[in-house]
Amino acid sequence: MYVPLVEFAYKNNFYVSLKMSPFEALYGRNCKTPICWIELSERKLVGLALVRETEEKVAIIRNHLKASQDHQKTYEDLKRKEISFEVFLKVSYWKKIIKFDQKGKLSPRFVGPYEVLERFGPVAYKLALPPEPSKIHNVFHVSMLRRYKSNPDHVVQIEELEVELNLSSLYTLLLYLVV
Fold first, then answer.
1. Global pTM?
2. For the sheet containing 90-94, what is the strand order?
3. Which fold has domain 90-152?
4. Cα–Cα distance, 84 to 120 (Å, whole number)
């Protein structure tokens, strides 16, 4: 019921990047609303004049889009920082969609540490991965890597245990170490 009205509003909305509405960019004039129906004069273009005017409008739109992209690029460049890793440095990679042991929110986002073997260009790195996860390619984009920071809390302290004849305390220790 309201879809045509929403489409009309969307196509006649002013875009900062285009510096005009999409309707005006496509047809070269503003859309005629019921308010504008009084103005009946419309000029017709044919032949070379139509081609020339279309090329001029495309050039204007390209210039506006380029200016808008340059404007946004200046803001992005302020936030961007150059990331690079040296060879043989320990890094962790973002596991993204790949499922390992844990599922959900409690699973670690980055898996590692792995050594950087080689650098391919400014943004790709080859890691020394174990052969076990065969679905994973060993070349990663720099945005998927993070420098590994060792955490001394993750080291398990080995304590002496009294082992019973049925080995139940050893079994609980192994469960604790595995989990």
1. 0.43
2. 139-141, 124-127, 110-120, 90-94, 145-147
3. SH3 type barrels. (2.30.30)
4. 11
